[in-house]
TrEMBL record:
Species: Candidatus Pullichristensenella excrementigallinarum
GO molecular function: iron ion binding; iron-sulfur cluster binding
Gene name linked to the record: nifU
Domain of life: Bacteria
GO biological process, one term: iron-sulfur cluster assembly
Protein's name in the database: Fe-S cluster assembly scaffold protein NifU
Length: 130
């Protein structure tokens, strides 16, 4: 299986690894078939701009690389802009993935979307209680 230089770079030197204790939203997804688990934390400011993002991924090199790249792509974007980032965009920005590893980029997209959904749910609950 051949990986691009960008994929290897993000695997060997992942960006934004960790967790955000007071995250605005957290999304966790997993793929039971391959065993990959991805968790993305986002910090959102009052203008709905993602100011920080961290990830924790248990999985293969492609899962780590796509998580790392996806986090880079959303920092500084609004929630709506971040929702437009697709697994295809993540894959293209890494120079491609072997077909058998494309599901990893889908997990990155799903974890990001889950974190945004969590943020929106928390915000809606806060407005109801406030």
């Amino acid at each position: 299986m051949q990986y691009t230089e960008k994929v290897m770079d993000h695997f060997m030197h992942p960006r934004n690894v960790g967790e955000i204790a007071d995250a605005s939203g957290v999304g966790e997804v997993g793929n039971a078939k391959c065993g990959d688990i991805m968790k993305i934390y986002i910090k959102v400011d009052e203008n709905e701009v993602i100011t920080d993002v961290k990830f924790q991924t248990f999985g293969c090199g492609a899962a780590i690389a796509t998580s790392s790249r996806a986090t880079e792509m959303v920092i500084g974007k609004t929630i709506d802009e971040a929702l437009k980032i697709t697994n295809e965009m993540v894959t293209q920005s890494l120079g491609g993935l072997p077909p058998v590893k494309l599901h990893c980029s889908v997990l990155a997209e799903e974890a990001l979307h889950a974190a945004i959904a969590d943020y929106k749910n928390k915000r809606a609950a806060g407005k109801e209680n406030g």
